[in-house]
Amino acid sequence: xxxxxxxxxxxxxxxxxxxxxxxxxxxxxxxxxxxxxxxxxxxxxxxxxxxxxxxxxxxxxxxxxxxxxxxxxxxxxxxxxxxxxxxxxxxxxxxxxxxxxxxxxxxxxxxxxxxxxxxxxxxxxxxxxxxxxxxxxxxxxxxxxxxxxxxxxxxxxxxxxxxxxxxxxxxxxxxxxxxxxxxxxxxxxxxxxxxxxxxxxxxxxxxxxxxxxxxxxxxxxxxxxxxxxxxxxxxxxxxxxxxxxxxxxxxxxxxxxxxxxxxxxxxxxxxxxxxxxxxxxxxxxxxxxxxxxxxxxxxxxxxxxxxxxxxxxxxxxxxxxxxxxx
Length: 326
Hints:
mainly alpha, 3 domains, two-stranded antiparallel sheet, 12 helices, 8% strand
């Protein structure tokens, strides 16, 4: 009996030694630098179990032993804490580091930058091409209902949700800016501010000019003058589906349209693009000027004038520059 007890004790001791060695080996494997030679992005789909995650990481080269990884996850008590998503695994990341990354939820953040002045048609086209988004956009959003800026998203987010975020962003921006508008503006509603801001957005790409261009249109509206904005005519011809592809001709200016501000009084029937925050700020707080006209000056900006005579001189200068350039 004593002999049997002794043998059992020896066997138990041996098992403890073996277990200790295995634990040391396992811990060493978990902490050892991984096989990745370069940073690698791996996507873990929703609903993935531990076996599927380990297999995906092994195939991607993040780990070199799925069994040790699974044992390590259980040893860390993290089996239920691994999160789905798209992760960037750094080169040589250890298995322990991979477990910590997957439980942190620090997924890859993607971004989509939409330039000010794009039409809803153009924005939808960009969203449709954006990588890692899912689903369709749905119905094309109304013109001027989206706020162009940089939006961050993760793989698996839907295109429809991103469009809703853009709409909320515009609503929030208008709610913030409208109460601080300058007094006496010929703009009755936030919707009219969007219409005018869309025209300013299409008239100039120079940030510092927006308040000046806005002042011209505000001054013309106050005096009952037509806006006579070329971009509104273009929108009437294209519907915002793309560039006109040529210069406007006299016939275009005479073509009736709810957007042709050479023929209609006041603002067009709706926005001609999606204006950004700076253009909205410009029309709600335009520069204090007496300008009624502007024309390109050949440097990427515009020459502004208070009188028609002064404007005609600026137009003559611009035509001379165009002729020299051609």
